[in-house]
Amino acid sequence: MVNFAEISGAVIAGQEARVKELTRGAIDSGVDPLVIINEGLIAGMTVVGTRFKAGQMFVPEVLMSARAMNGGMELVKPLLVDKEVPSAGKVVIGTVKGDLHDIGKNLVAMMLESAGFTVVNLGVDLAPEKFVQAIQQHQPQIMGMSALLTTTMLGMKDTIEVLKEEGLRDQVKVIIGGAPISQDFANEIGADGFAPDAASAVELCKQLLA
Ligand code: B1M
């Protein structure tokens, strides 16, 4: 009898070795890999997201949980080769031009992956053209931009303008975030949404694709 709550509990506690052990046990018991992912691994990260948002967990703990979850995913993923892993949607995400901050953006990317999204993490210091290329190449439903500097946040506006010029604006939902960003700024530059933290970014993406 596989106890999925035990798997999620180990993810929440950030215990990578324990998550691997329990995941291996579940695989050996013949449990469907997708059930292990959804009811054990992702369920755990969903709790982590909620607690992080509520200020009950902090960045280092969230990173440990994400690492623990990835440890389990590594064991389960090869078993899914013949099955299409259902994706909640595809997101390309990056930090805007001139800005090298990526801790928060990577956290958002990890939380989205944990929630079942396919994420293409483009990195940092991205000129508008890089976002354009990524949309053309990956055809995502959502494009996410992060900025931590008041001097770089206008890069988000520039990028949206270039998307319009390239005729791509209607193809993707644009979400933005980062310490200096607000809902007012998102409205001002015509983004589809703003999220103050990683857990809210996951909720926002789900809402935008509902
Ligand atoms: Co810099 N830095 N930094 N920095 N740095 C800040 C941002 C700053 C506020 C510090 C300060 O002065 N108090 C200040 C900005 C001031 C301003 O513009 N108003 C600043 C400065 C000035 C600079 C330099 C210019 C310093 C210098 O060289 N003179 C320089 C700029 C370099 C560049 O980018 N061109 C610089 C450099 C650096 C380091 C390289 C040393 C390092 C970055 C390392 C890295 O990211 N790999 C760094 C760091 C670590 C910080 C602080 C201390 C921490 C940022 C962080 O990682 N927070 C920061 C001060 C602070 O914020 N307290 C500071 C943790 C992270 C989890 O939170 O990134 O906010 P955050 O992400 C959150 C949300 O914002 C949201 O979700 C995340 C998780 O909840 N979110 C999104 C983020 N992106 C999102 C995208 C979304 C949705 C939500 O949708 C797409």
What does this structure look like?
The protein has nine helices and five strands. With 210 residues, it is an alpha/beta fold. The chain folds into two domains: 77 residues, Methionine synthase domain (Methyltransferase, Methionine Synthase (B12-binding Domains), Chain A, domain 1); 120 residues, Cobalamin-binding domain (Rossmann fold, 3-Layer(aba) Sandwich), CATH 3.40.50. Helix 8 links the parallel strand 4 and strand 5. Helix 4 crosses helix 5. The model has no long low-confidence stretch (mean pLDDT 93). Bound molecules: CO-5-methoxybenzimidazolylcobamide (B1M). CO-5-methoxybenzimidazolylcobamide binds next to helix 5, strand 3, strand 4 and helix 9.
- For this structure, what is the CATH homologous superfamily of the largest domain? Cobalamin-binding domain
What's the quaternary structure here? single chain
What shape does the CA trace take?
Answer: elongated
Q: What is the arithmetic mean of pLDDT?
A: 93
Q: Gap between N and C termini, in Å?
A: 35 Å
Q: How many domains make up the coordinates? A: 2
Features:
single chain, 210 residues, alpha/beta, Methyltransferase, Methionine Synthase (B12-binding Domains), Chain A, domain 1, Rossmann fold, 2 domains, 5-stranded parallel β-sheet, 9 helices, 55% helix, 13% strand, binds CO-5-methoxybenzimidazolylcobamide
Summary, kept brief:
The protein folds into two domains: 4-80, Methyltransferase, Methionine Synthase (B12-binding Domains), Chain A, domain 1 (Orthogonal Bundle), CATH 1.10.1240.10; 90-209, Cobalamin-binding domain (Rossmann fold), CATH 3.40.50. Helix content is 55%, strand content 13%.
